[in-house]
Design brief:
By secondary structure, the protein is of the alpha+beta class. It contains eight helices and 19 strands. The structure holds zinc ion.
Length: 294
Amino acid sequence: MRLANHDGRAVLVLSGGPDGGKAADIATASQGRFGPDLASLYADWDGFTTWVRTALTGLSPDVVLDRALLGSPSPYPSQVAAIGLNYADHAAETGYEVPTTLPPVFTKFPSAITGPYGEVTLPPGGNTDWEVEVVAIIARECHQVSEDSAWDYVAGLAVGQDLSERVSQMAGPAPQFGLAKSFPKFAPIGPWLVTVDELETAGHDRDDLALGCAIGSGQEWDTVQDGRTSKLIFSIPRTIAKLSEVITLRPGDVVFTGTPDGVGLGMNPPRFLRSGETLRTWVKGIGELEHTFR
Ligand code: ZN
């Protein structure tokens, strides 16, 4: 299934895309048992998915999607974990060693979360960079889960942008990721959550998804990142197992799984987002984000 946040209400996308697609309002269809908020679905993910399986064929669309109304499929997670240096080529372009036993982990503060489309304000005096990432949304509370079972704790995947302001990131005696990656709207997530079974039914491999992003102004688009999740150093299930060695992941929590090479910081000379430019971010099989910078 594709589960979207449309104007703050959980909807099941039945057909079409983010503009004009048809969806069913979950609170209406379930007569108030689930929704309307997204968090309530993650809180009872097994009950919700069981209901969807029985109700799906009888659902009729009552919502026409408007991309301006789409929000993050997990708008208020209790935690956001983000992984650094999780692709070897990206570690190399930033001048760091490849992690072997534990990847660098930081948070993007949840107030930075925004939806799949919109405008983002560039922090003055900063160098704002792009990082396409697959985002995993957690379905069930978990602590110390094995890599083999970790996919069972994932509700689904979404497209994420780990927008990063490099001046403040590098300003202190040690790099600080949390603040530099948490300006307003620096954590776009969307356009919806896609469950793993939906991805696989459509012929995609959950461990080998194509992801990328392109910068445009007007008609010209420059693809700056073009990677595959099969090149993750810590795969999505291994990342969840590693995180859960320490923290308890909760329903609705968000994991940014790392970015491939092609960020602006790694270019020679470095290149950052400019006012008026638009960033398109995609994961094949999930969808696309689009943000314009001011
Ligand atoms: Zn990142």
